[in-house]
TrEMBL record:
<feature type="domain" description="VOC">
    <location>
        <begin position="10"/>
        <end position="113"/>
    </location>
</feature>
<feature type="domain" description="VOC">
    <location>
        <begin position="129"/>
        <end position="247"/>
    </location>
</feature>
<dbReference type="InterPro" id="IPR037523">
    <property type="entry name" value="VOC_core"/>
</dbReference>
<dbReference type="Pfam" id="PF00903">
    <property type="entry name" value="Glyoxalase"/>
</dbReference>
<protein>
    <submittedName>
        <fullName>Glyoxalase</fullName>
    </submittedName>
</protein>
<dbReference type="InterPro" id="IPR029068">
    <property type="entry name" value="Glyas_Bleomycin-R_OHBP_Dase"/>
</dbReference>
<dbReference type="InterPro" id="IPR004360">
    <property type="entry name" value="Glyas_Fos-R_dOase_dom"/>
</dbReference>
Length: 277
């Protein structure tokens, strides 16, 4: 069996919509150790290897997700992949970029390699890299087809119910287990973004930081089945989940896609889970 190579890209920026962009930006700046700066229509929060933008709009909706290719060769290969396909204008992303809208209308953007720049607010907190995000969708098979066939993400694991229906899938853009998770749900919306910490000690520091801010952990500490990462989650002012995780699985390019049963233990090997459907 021939396996498709990963794109060699990593999540760079998440833009969320919110009816109260300032409250959301203040939360992400405070909770995740990022600067807070105005941008057209909203705010940008930046820290080392993490950027979240908030603009006006309905809650629980993605403005866009931007991936940066790892190197020039990967970017040229991606441009070749996109040749002849209908793309979306991406005026809110600096420099050259290629954008597509998925079957639910979410905008996903790919950009050339990004040079390290100003990391934003100086922070004593441990590293936490913006690593993946998740969407809820009533159109899971179509979304999976779009993100694998057109975009080029690779399926790491799928979750199926006893009747064989697809309930979740985890897709990677490089060697890390997933850069995007898709969950079957009655309504299409944003689910969460995750910041990857380097180790257990950093997880503890981040947990203590949330406690100091009186931001309650609403799920975790736990360990996901797909990805094998340890995690905890809080909620932002709009009710979106926001995750800190560590130890995510590193995948070989020829790793076959796995399958998991649709049950709580799949989403949390250690206990309770949030099931989206």
């Amino acid at each position: 069996m021939q396996h498709r190579a990963e794109l060699q890209a990593a999540l760079h920026t998440i833009r969320l919509r919110s009816p109260d962009p300032l409250a959301m930006a203040r939360f992400y700046s405070r909770a995740y150790g990022m600067s807070l700066e105005p941008l057209e229509g909203g705010y940008a929060c930046r820290g080392p290897q993490r950027q979240v933008q908030i603009v006006g709009g309905p809650a629980h909706q993605l403005g866009f997700a931007e991936f940066a290719l790892h190197d020039d060769a990967a970017w040229q290969a991606f441009r070749e992949r996109a040749r002849g396909l209908k793309t979306e204008a991406v005026p809110d992303v600096d420099g050259e970029a290629i954008g597509w809208r998925d079957p639910d209308g979410n905008l996903v953007v790919f950009s050339p390699p990004r040079q390290p720049g100003d990391a934003g607010l100086a922070s004593s907190l441990p590293p936490a890299t913006l690593q993946h995000f998740a969407l809820r969708t009533p159109n899971l098979p179509d979304m999976l087809d779009f993100y694998t066939r057109q975009v080029g993400l690779v399926l790491s694991d799928a979750v199926r119910d006893p009747e064989g229906q697809l309930r979740a899938c985890f897709l990677r853009s490089d060697h890390l287990h997933h850069a995007l998770a898709l969950f079957f749900a009655p309504v299409a919306c944003f689910d969460h973004q995750s910041f990857e910490a380097p180790d257990w000690a950093a997880m503890k520091t981040w947990g203590d930081h949330m406690a100091g801010l009186r931001e309650p952990i609403v799920w975790g500490l736990g360990r996901h089945g797909p990805g094998n990462d340890v995690f905890f989650m809080v909620r932002d002012p709009d009710g979106n989940l926001a995750e800190i995780s560590a130890e995510i699985e590193h995948c070989e390019s020829d790793r076959p896609a796995g399958e998991w049963p649709h049950e709580e233990r799949t989403l949390n090997l250690w206990g309770k889970a949030i099931l989206r459907s």
